[in-house]
Design a protein that fits this description.
This protein is of the alpha+beta class. The protein folds into three domains: 193 residues, Serine Threonine Protein Phosphatase 5, Tetratricopeptide repeat; 126 residues, Winged helix-like DNA-binding domain superfamily/Winged helix DNA-binding domain (Arc Repressor Mutant, subunit A), CATH 1.10.10.10; 56 residues, Arc Repressor Mutant, subunit A. The C terminus is likely disordered.
Length: 406
């Protein structure tokens, strides 16, 4: 590796993308193309970065498998930054195995972290936990150690393990302080601020209460029967009944929880669950059927009793019923939450992450754009969506900082 390539790699490791470009901007050999691609990605020029990395991968010979695998890893992180979540991760898994076999532990770990972060974005928490399990940040470069701890903290936050998340963020801060990369320090600080942001609302007939993450965890660990509108299910103690695939049943449970300890009129339940203001006997019959299904599913936790005017929820062991709602409710709330990471998302990536159709996502984005809560850049297939106002720092793109090009 010549002196300019080495100097450019050191500049990238320190977060100095412009300094790296100054050294290799006019070179067309594969190592220089790879470094240029990484630098362009760190500057936000993801499309150009992808082109350069693919060109570099083609330029390496068959005897340079490690260098080609590093380019695959770098391109995978560019795709992650572009929120291009389609396609198969098999190329990344193969590159990770090649790097591990070749003794390049740093970039093999980087490939594993990219796969874990992709799983986190798609909500595949078990898959992310498997990828992060057994991953030791000891002995890694500070930048990569910080990314590993940030990923572990995000997984813990999504699982509402706040103490584990705080511990991981503390280690991430220590690693970021050693790395002294400004954008990485900013991302750690932003992650730490998540503990003080509203995480959910507790609703009842008397009003609402804003809860932080630790308060949500305490509520779920209490003896209350929680109707969780964040995850769409019922929780009491250690028992959990998912209703994400039963939207009518969850709507009924939510209405009953919101009115507890009072009952809810049949007409109001029909209007909420079946979206009609003119119920007839068929709607009342369907309501009886759906209430029977809800009663069967909720039996370990609560009874659903009929009253003269409607139905009432009666917890079996819990002393109270709590309705937990996200800070911004509905499909629009989920979109705003995804866009709040500062990255530019395509409609297809948002649909994949939400498990919804592209048409549904497009309608919700159009409404949010009309309200000034999101903005778009680009046109047609190149259109991407962002949440304004833009923060001072966006989510960092951390490509292999220790990219070794033999």
């Amino acid at each position: 590796m010549d002196s300019l390539i080495a100097a450019s790699a050191r500049a990238l490791a320190a977060g100095d993308a412009l300094g790296a470009l100054k050294r290799v901007a006019l070179r067309e050999d594969p190592p220089a193309l790879a470094l240029r691609g990484i630098a362009m990605a760190q500057l936000g020029e993801h499309v150009r970065a992808r082109e350069l990395l693919r060109k570099a991968a083609r330029g390496f010979g068959s005897h340079e498998q490690l260098s080609r695998a590093r380019c695959v890893v770098a391109e995978a992180e560019v795709a992650l930054a572009m929120r291009d979540l389609g396609g198969s991760p098999r190329a990344l898994v193969s590159a990770s195995a090649t790097l591990q076999a070749g003794g390049d532990r740093v970039n093999a770990v980087q490939a594993r972290l990219i796969a874990a972060r992709r799983s986190l974005l798609l909500g595949r928490l078990d898959e992310a936990a498997s990828l992060l399990g057994g991953l030791e940040s000891q002995g890694l470069p500070p930048v990569l150690a910080a990314v590993a701890e940030l990923s572990a903290a995000e997984l813990a936050l999504r699982l509402l393990q706040t103490q584990a998340a705080r511990t991981a963020l503390q280690r991430a801060r220590q690693a970021a302080n050693r790395a002294q990369v400004p954008s990485l320090l900013a991302e750690v600080a932003d992650a730490c601020a998540a503990f003080d942001r509203p995480a959910a609302h507790r609703l009842d007939k008397d009003g609402e209460q804003v809860l932080r993450l630790d308060e949500v965890q305490a509520l779920l660990a209490s003896d209350a029967l929680v109707v969780d509108a964040c995850r769409h299910g019922l929780r009491s103690g250690g028992e959990w009944v998912p209703l994400a695939r039963r939207p009518v049943l969850f709507t009924l449970a939510r209405e009953l929880a919101a009115a507890w300890p009072d009952d809810v009129a049949r007409e109001d339940l029909i209007a909420s669950a079946f979206r009609t203001r003119r119920p007839d006997e068929t709607h009342r019959a369907r309501l009886r059927v759906e209430m029977g299904r809800l009663r069967a599913l909720a039996a370990p936790m609560a009874d659903v009793d009929a009253t003269a005017r409607g139905f009432v929820l009666k917890p079996r062991h819990a002393r109270q019923v709590a309705l937990l709602a996200p800070p911004i409710d509905g499909e629009q709330g989920a979109l705003v939450a995804l866009l709040s990471d500062g990255a530019a998302w395509s409609t297809s990536a948002l649909a994949q992450a939400l498990g919804a159709s592209q048409r549904t996502v497009q309608r919700a984005l159009a409404e949010l754009e009309a309200d000034g809560r999101v903005r778009s850049i680009g046109q047609a297939r190149a259109r991407r969506w962002l949440a304004p106002p833009l923060a001072e720092f966006t989510t960092i793109l951390l490509l292999p900082a220790a990219l070794q090009l033999d």
